[in-house]
Amino acid sequence: MSLPPLDLSVVAVLVLAAVHVITPSLRFIRGIPRSIWLSIFGGVSVAYVFVHLLPELAEGQERLGRALASGVLGVSFAERHVYLVALFGLAVFYGLERLAKRARSTTDGGTGTSVFWIHMGSFGIYNAVVGYLLVRRPSSSLASLVFFTVAMALHFVVTDYGLTEDHEQAFPRIGRWVLAGAVLAGYVLGLAFELPQPAIDILIAFLAGGVILNVLKEEVPAERQSRFWAFAAGAAGYAFLLLFV
User: Fold this and answer.
1) What span, in angstroms and rounded, lies between the C-alpha atoms of 30 and 24?
2) Is the distance from CB of 39 to CB of 226 less than 8 angstroms?
3) Does residue 196 contact residue 125 with C-beta atoms inside 8 Å?
4) Which of 90, 109, 164, 189 holds its CA 20 to 30 A away from the CA of 196?
C-alpha cells in the first residue's frame, strides 16, 4: 500500500488535532435550537459514510471473508462479519451515550469523572483510528485524503460539541487535548506500522458504525430542535461532491 504525500498528510492530521482544540471555544455553534452549522456538518459526515466508507467496506468484504472464514464459523458468517463490525461500532457508542445520560440524571453539573474517562478512552481509540486511516486508507490519492479530512474534521466538531455538553468543565480543560493527542498518536502509528488489509477493513467498519451513531444521536433527539433541511443539504451537497468531483 502506497502512502499519501507526507507533507499533505501532516497538514491533514494537524487540522484534525486543531479542530479538537478550538471546538469548545466556538460560540456560534452553541444554543437551542441547534446550530444550522452542526446539522450541516452532521449531514456531511453521514454522506461520507454512505457514499464512500460503505462502498469501501463492500470492496473489502471479500478480503475479510477469506481471512476469517473457518470451518467453525462458516462462510455465511464470514460474508457478513465486516458489517457486524460496523454494527458493533454503532452499539458501542450507543451504550456510551446511554451511560452518559444515566450519569447526567444523577449528578448536578455534567457527568461524573468515571464517565468522562470512559468517554475519553473510547473516543481516544476512535480518534486514533481516524489518525491511522489518514495514512493507511485503501486509497492514497489526494482527493481521497481531502474528502476524508474534511468529513472527519466536521464530524469532530459535532462530537466535540456533544462532549462539551456532557462534560462542561472537564472536556475544555482536559478532554480536547486528550483527543487531539489521540489523533496524532494514531497518525504516528500509521507511519510506523502497516496492518494487514483485512485489519484495516475492520477499522473502517468500526469507524463507519461510530460515525453514524454519533451523528444521529446529536441530530435525532427532539430537545435538540435540529434542522432537517440543513442536515439534508449537508448530506446531499457532500454526496454530490463525492460522486462527481
Assistant:
1) 10
2) yes
3) no
4) 90
The pLDDT of residue 224 is 59
Dist CA 120 CA 102 (whole Å): 17
Q: Bigger pLDDT: 180 or 113?
A: 180
Q: What is the DSSP string of 95-117?
A: HHHHHHHHHHHHSSSS--HHHHH
Rounded distance, CA 245 to CA 240, Å? 8
Q: Which three cell numbers stand for residue 57?
A: 467496506
Q: What is the DSSP string of 21-63?
A: HHGGG-GGG-SSSPPHHHHHHHHHHHHHIIIIIHHHHHHHHHH
State the number of CA atoms in the 13 A half-sphere of 199 facing the CB: 8
Question: Are the C-beta atoms of 81 and 98 separated by less than 8 Å?
Answer: no
Mean pLDDT of 213-220: 78
What CA–CA distances, in Å, run from 234 to 13, 34, 42, 55, 241? 23, 15, 7, 20, 11
Q: Where are the beta strands (DSSP E) in 61-219?
A: none
pLDDT, greater one: 147 or 202? 147
Q: In whole angstroms, what is the distance from residue 231 CA to residue 245 CA?
A: 21
pLDDT in tens, 2-44: 666 677 889 999 999 999 999 988 887 776 667 888 889 999 9
Q: Specify the DSSP class assigned to residue 222.
A: G
Take residue 104 and report the three cell numbers written for it: 447526567
Close Cβ partners of 244 (under 8 Å, ≥ 6 residues apart)? none
**At a CB cut-off of 8 Å and minimum separation 6, what does 135 contact?**
3, 4, 9, 187, 190, 191
